[in-house]
Amino acid sequence: MFTLFLKIFSTPKTVIPVQDFDREQAAILAVGERLQEQVKRLFRGSLAIRQVDAGSDNACEQELVALGNAFYDVERFGIHFVASPKHADMLLVTGPVTRNMAEALRRAYAATPEPKIVVAVGDDAINGGIFKGSYATHDGVGNVIPVHYQIPGDPPTPKVIIYHLLKILEGLERKPTRT
Amino acid sequence: MTIFFSILQAILIPALSPLGVGLVRKLKARLQNRQGASVLQPYRDLWKLFHKDEIISTDASWIFRYAPFILFAVTLVVSASIPFLTAIPGSTLTSDVLVVIYTLAIGTFFLALAGMDTGGPFGGFGASREMTVSALAEGGLIFSLLTIALRSGTTDLFAMSSASLISTTSSYVPVAMAFVGFFIVLLAETARFPFDNPATHLELTMIHEAMILEHSGKRLALMEWASANKLLIFLSLGANIFFPWGIAHSFGFAEMLVSILVFAVKMLILYTAIAVLESSIAKFRFFRLPDLLMVSFILNSVAIAFLK
Amino acid sequence: MLANIATPLGFVALLLLFTVGAIGALLLHRHDHRANVWGSLFAIAGSVWGVLFAIAVLVGGNDIAAAVQLSPFPLFTFSVHIDKLSAFFLAVISLIALFSSTYGIGYVKHYYKQYSIGALGFFYNLFIAGMLLVVSASNGIFFLVAWELMSLASYFLVVYDRKDAQNVKAGFLYLVMTHVGTAFIIIAFLLLYTHTGSFDFAAIKAGAVLIPASMKNAIFILAMVGFGTKAGIIPFHIWLPSAHPAAPSHVSALMSGVMIKTGIFMMIRLFLDILQPVPAWWGLTVVVIGLVSTLLGVLYALTEHDIKRLLAYSSIENIGIILLGVGSALTFTALGMQPLALIGLVAALFHTLNHATFKSLLFLSAGSVINQTHTRNMEEYGGLMKYMPQTALFFLVGAMAISALPPFNGFFSEWLTFQALFQGIAALDFYAKWIFILAAGSLAFTGGLALACFVKAFGATFLARPRSIAVTHTKESSLSLRVGMAALAVFALVFGVFSGRLTSFLNGVGRDLQVFHSSTSFISINTHQNLSAGHFAFVSPLALFVYLLIALVIVVLGVKYLVNRKQKVHLGATWDCGTDLSPRMEVTATGFSHSIVTIFQRVLRPSIQHDIEYRDDQSRYLPKSRTVTLGVSDLYHTYIYNPIHTLVTTLSERTKHVQGGNINVYLLYIFIALLAALVVIR
């Protein structure tokens, strides 16, 4: 245990500060209903995300898992992942929504209490991506449940994902730029 | 006057408990080389949850609907009955050791029933595991507090937190053993490592979290807040009863200031200890937990034997 | 007016009410409904009179003694002596009988046309009358007559539902075990007779000092076995889990709530009253028996999925708790610490009252569930809260009371028992202290395990979704059943909130025993009805109840009306991870307690057996059906009863050869017997 703590205290800090996020990304892709200001204010301090894998190839999941590590550390923005859609504010859906997962996705959407945000992450989730036109998929989350935002990329890097999350809540400018 | 004091405690403990939980999370994040959310994050989480709608299962009955309220009310009653910042008796009418333990058991009872009420698979086995751990932890809990009660000749929690009775050298060993036993039970009752991981997403590893999977909105907020209250209550008991140096017994300005500062330091140490523990060991396999609880019970029994 | 009731005539009137009820019901046996109403109404009237009578004796302060000599043989002396202890037990019996009979009016309706209701009314009234006589008898022979009456009446009630072969078997086991116990009691009384020359309790008490110590110890062991069999202590409990479920539910309530307490009553009467002074090891033995019974009782209760068997094992657990109180009282009396002994006795008496209340409540609720669903198997229940909401509420009150949750009555009697044990840990020397430490530990664990057991019982029965079609056809029970249950639930709360007053009252009952006449009590109450055990512990039942209520109201109103006004509550489905939830996905009663059974597997010895039926027996590839049988082996059968059974049968086989069938051999036996008699007489 002693060597463990020695290692903890001697490792340098690796968290990427907010200013380093890629601001040359295109404007945030908002579709569907516009989010009301009061909803954005509600979630600005604390956002609970439920990640739904609707038949994805797990590339986006790997990037989402990386969000919690010591480099990107999404928890410092008050964003955390939860285990049940009943606890969630935002559904991050990945994958082109295979036919087998369509009903499950609808139930997850129904089980999330209002107010909620649905974000389609990855090109597969936006319009089917590389699986577009397949008989086994619904070609995008928007065809199954109403989507508010889209994050493009195959898969989008964690930096892009965090940038989009913060932009959605319009909290990027308000975040103190400290490391 | 005393009723005012107990109401003050019943307000202070719920007000400060999310700070404690935030502190543990921040420390764990720092130990993981991350920045982590601010220590005030749990307050924001609770505020947000109170402003969300709820979805309640059609299979649920009034027990599911009222369990969070009952659980929170129980923590309020216990908050008024324990020595918190000072040992000035607030409500001595309910500050008996057994009363406090069994009042907290009411909360556990309804929490388990609420977990079973919705008929989901996770809530059911969460309730089963919670009752197993809780049943085995009660022996250790009563006996650890009994050690100090026998030493001080009373089971009133306010009178037990008196330094003069613990300071003799013959008491150090039993008190230390009883504290270790109490700490193990504390980890069990508040669902911390190695008994339960409060941040897990894997339902098969959940105990406390599994029972609250179906709650949303304000009921979820009350459940999480009650669990934070319970952590603060147990830590206050541990600090004030086993290490009562510096605690105030009467209304003197200097005395109370010292008492509050010493209490803050003790809480800081204990919360840090929990954060360090959670960063160093892994959660135990479920069937190793009864062994740990038996260790607690035996330590406490031996501590009682060492008293005379 | 109370003084007029508290007379021997009042007691005779009490017995007369029950006798008339019994005989009348039997005479009306051709008309089911009239027999039911006659029997129940007289039972209710008798119970009400019984409660009034008992309170009159307790408040009035004079003992009632009456003796009627009907013949020169001691067999026909009717001799009663009702002091405060007896009156207390009379009150408990009558109170529970009152609500049980109220419940019975509606409950018995489902036996119409199947069995003889007249016989039910007859045996039911005789059963209650028998119990009343048992706690008031003051002559050994008369006591045994009353004891037999109680046992036989309850036997006929246990086998009442005789279409089910299990019930008949259970009744037979009950009959054998209770008579084995009675045999031990008879031997104990005969030993007392040889050493004091009389069967009368007062005479035995006067002569108790003359009995040699070894004989007293023998009487203790015999009485412990005999009365313990009736009380259901481990290992003499094997009749309890089969007999209590077999009887009709209101009879189960009486048997479990009151009949087993008559064993406790006689233990208190014999050990704390008649045979004083006693050595300390008696008390320690009773404490050890108590701690074993309580822990094993609740562990076996956790393994059960038959709701009435679960409640029966839970009764064994509570008898253990009562014995912890009695044992500590015995130990302290022997060591001269009378005030501390009084706590133990008061704790035992209070727990007797409380257990009678909440166990009857639980049995009556279980009975109304079984009445509607026609099965005792908890695995087929589920979701009954929506169909039987009031029964569910009453069962919840009973479950909270039995798990010792404040503000109900169970908590306060366990608190008192804990105080008695804590004082023992503080005041006794090494060996006794360790026994008390183990006893307190056992009580602490039992509290937690009982909580788990009743979360399982309530949750599996009433919550979530129905697990079988039978549940969807149920509806709430009729009025008389609900009145019986509601009254007991109210009493559970009332006894809890007013436990201060009750404790001081029970102090008076305890002090009525000669051994405590001049002692003060360690337990006292102050003006606000708060209980304190010397300077050691202090609790306020009323404050606890009020604080909990206020806190709950504040939280509900505060959250609903201050914080959360604009938010809506929607109804949806349980989160099922996208699949369909079937009733089989809920936790079952067996699954709930599986963890605990696995943890205690050295004691409980669970067994699992797989049977597979294949489509083709030759090539065993494709299974058609799988049966998994989970069982818990009963240690006592394996290590105690089966060996005794084998021993007895082997001995019988061997001695069978004496009966040769040959006349000449018999003549030889007579000749040898004559020779032996001649030698002995010389």
- Please provide the count of β strands of chain C: 8
Largest sheet: spatial strand order of chain C: 3-4-5
Gyration radius over CA of chain C: 27 Å
**What is the N-to-C order of secondary-structure elements of chain A (H for helix, E for strand)?**
HEHEHEEHEHEH
Q: What percent strand of chain A?
A: 5-15%
Apparent shape of chain C: globular
The count of strands of chain A amounts to 6
How does this structure look, described?
Chain A is 30% helix and 14% strand. With 179 residues, chain A is an alpha/beta fold. Chain B is globular, with a radius of gyration of 19 Å. Chain C has helices spanning 2-5, 8-27, 32-60, 84-107, 117-136, 140-158, 165-196, 201-207, 213-231, 240-246, 249-274, 280-303, 307-334, 338-373, 384-387, 389-402, 409-427, 430-462, 469-472, 479-497, 499-511, 541-563, 589-592, 594-599, 601-604, 635-656, 663-681, and strands spanning 64-69, 77-82, 523-525, 531-533, 537-539, 569-572, 606-614, 623-632. Chains in contact: A-B, A-C, B-C. Chains B and C meet through strand 1, helix 3, helix 4, helix 5 and helix 9 of B and helix 16, helix 17, helix 18, strand 5 and helix 22 of C.
Question: What is the strand and helix layout of this fold?
Answer:
The complex is a heterotrimer of chains A (179), B (308) and C (682).
Chain A (H helix, E strand, L loop, with lengths): L1 H9 L18 E2 L6 H8 L2 E7 L5 H8 L12 E3 L8 E5 L4 H13 L5 E5 L1 H5 L21 E3 L6 H11 L11
Parallel strand pairs in A: 2-3, 2-4, 4-5, 5-6
Antiparallel strand pairs in A: 1-6
Chain B lengths: L1 H30 L9 H10 L3 E4 L4 H20 L15 H21 L3 H32 L4 H4 L8 H21 L18 H4 L5 H26 L10 H28 L8 H19 L1
Chain C lengths: L1 H4 L2 H20 L4 H29 L3 E6 L7 E6 L1 H24 L9 H20 L3 H19 L6 H32 L4 H7 L5 H19 L8 H7 L2 H26 L5 H24 L3 H28 L3 H36 L10 H4 L1 H14 L6 H19 L2 H33 L6 H4 L6 H19 L1 H13 L11 E3 L5 E3 L3 E3 L1 H23 L5 E4 L16 H4 L1 H6 L1 H4 L1 E9 L8 E10 L2 H22 L6 H19 L1
Antiparallel strand pairs in C: 1-2, 3-4, 4-5, 7-8
